[in-house]
Design a protein that fits this description.
heterodimer, A: mainly alpha, 9 helices, flat, B: 4-stranded antiparallel sheet, globular
Chain lengths: ~220, ~260
């Protein structure tokens, strides 16, 4: 009667679990970079004078935000090869995370851009700067600062979502855990530990984001 | 070559010519057949009740606002919707705003160096030397490494003036530069503008500072309802305004001074 705890399984496989954590961090980090790039370019395209580009971005956001992540990654991994585009699990995971996170990032960053006073843009124009220069040099940094908590929150979400990438056998913490569990049948011990490891990863990221904020967004405001 | 009788010592072509300019915001007409010619080194003060179109007028000169009819020519370049022309004109026209509009994430020095480097293609050293020269000139050289939020309103506006000067413009536009300032800071900004006027800068100032107008303006232009109603040297304008709207306006603002 009762379940006998045996955490020795976890200790035996701890190196593998740590490698899994690194896999998760790697996928997530690459996904965040891609999401940020998509977010910034998407905001520029979203505010463009070119009608079809604007509508394309809106359609992209709608599609990504209203479909499940699991279906999106299956689409990349199982559907695209039918059209001749075969991606390995790591690349699939990074693209899926980046594209999914990017759609959310566009809307978040757009909010930041809209919070910037019109006078900032006009001052840039009056000095002779072009639209893209005004965006890149004047608007972007204060806009990112304004929405930094939401954006980094989204990035933590992205990191946790990366566990779904186990479904295409990408190398990350959850897939490592599944393998250990199926070898040892120690479900409780393994997933209890994995839960703690995800918590640790989230806290680490939050600390890192706070440090980045102190470094880049520390200019005084009123 | 035409010369304007109102501008002293000038036989050159006017720096700015506005001919029959009309502007609408939707169905609201903001400018009605505005004609204006500004010579090199001339100082113009634009005044009038709020909503009279003064700000809109100067914002059309550097195309922060488009206009629908008429023409504006700045230093021989026609200000149209053509981006090339707009670029050329904006390099020659500096602007100072009511709300300063300094870039909060850049130091005072960086604010002043941005456009010379990115627009004029100056080297960093060149841009920094120019920036420090103009910051010294507006008496704020010792604050070069501070951020805008660490400065008072008056200091911020002086930095904004220096930032515009760093592009070495031919004309400076001032859009109510002292309206957002606490009273004790108005003087330092006006003194900076007076210094600039004495150095021969061509200036168009939208302001209600009538003391400033008396002291530096070659012409005071009074606007109401999008029209220029009166145009006269300051002595004449303040002593004996012709138009009833101008009389009323002067009565109202002088009552407070």
């Amino acid at each position: 009667m009762g379940y006998q705890m045996d955490f020795s399984v976890v200790f035996d496989h701890f190196p593998q679990l740590l490698w899994g954590c690194l896999g998760t961090l790697g996928l997530s980090f690459a996904g965040m970079i891609l999401a940020l790039v998509i977010g910034v370019l998407g905001v520029m395209a979203r505010g463009s004078q070119i009608g079809w580009l604007r509508r394309l971005v809106i359609a992209f956001i709608e599609i990504i935000r209203n479909t499940p992540f699991l279906v999106q990654i299956f689409f990349l991994y199982f559907a695209l090869p039918q059209l001749g585009l075969k991606l390995n699990p790591t690349v699939t995971a990074i693209i899926a995370l980046g594209v999914n996170g990017g759609a959310y990032a566009i809307e978040i960053i757009r909010g930041g851009v809209q919070s910037i006073h019109r006078g900032q843009v006009e001052a840039g124009f009056a000095l002779g700067l072009h639209k893209t220069q005004v965006f890149r040099l004047i608007v972007l940094k204060p806009a990112l600062r304004a929405i930094y908590p939401s954006l980094t929150g989204q990035f933590i979400m992205l990191t946790l979502t990366s566990s779904i990438c186990t479904s295409v056998a990408a190398y990350e913490l959850t897939s490592v855990a599944q393998r250990i569990e199926s070898d040892t049948f120690r479900s409780f011990e393994v997933y209890f530990t994995v839960t703690l490891l995800y918590l640790a990863i989230s806290w680490m990221l939050m600390t890192a984001f706070a440090a980045i904020s102190r470094q880049y967004f520390s200019y005084p405001t009123r | 070559m035409s010369s304007t009788s109102t501008a002293p010592n000038s036989t050159e072509q006017p720096l700015i010519v506005m001919g029959a300019v009309e502007k609408w915001f939707g169905t609201f007409q903001a400018l009605r057949s505005v004609n204006l010619s500004v010579s090199k080194s001339e100082k113009i003060v634009l005044c009038g009740p709020s909503g009279s179109g003064k700000s809109t007028l100067i914002r059309c000169i550097n195309h922060l606002e488009s206009y629908q009819k008429g023409k504006i020519v700045v230093d021989g370049v026609s200000v149209t919707d053509n981006q090339k022309a707009i670029d050329v004109v904006r390099q020659e026209v500096g602007m100072v705003f009511q709300s300063f509009n300094l870039f909060p994430h850049m130091t005072v020095l960086q604010n002043c160096m941005l456009a010379p480097i990115r627009v004029r293609g100056s080297s960093k050293q060149e841009a920094e030397a120019t920036a420090r020269r103009y910051l010294d000139r507006v008496h704020i050289g010792n604050q070069a490494d501070k951020y805008p939020a660490q400065l008072s309103g008056g200091q911020q506006q002086r930095v904004a003036i220096a930032r515009a000067l760093c592009m070495q413009p031919k004309v400076m536009l001032f859009d109510e530069p002292t309206s957002a300032l606490d009273p004790e800071m108005v003087k330092e900004v006006l003194d900076t503008m007076i210094g600039l006027a004495q150095d021969g800068m061509t200036m168009i100032c939208v302001t209600h500072e009538m003391g400033f107008a008396r002291q530096v303006a070659d012409r005071v232009i009074f606007m109401a309802d999008g029209m220029i109603l009166e145009e006269a040297p300051p002595e004449t304008f303040f002593k004996s305004p012709n138009h009833p709207r101008a009389k009323q306006f002067l009565g109202e603002i002088l009552a407070h001074h």
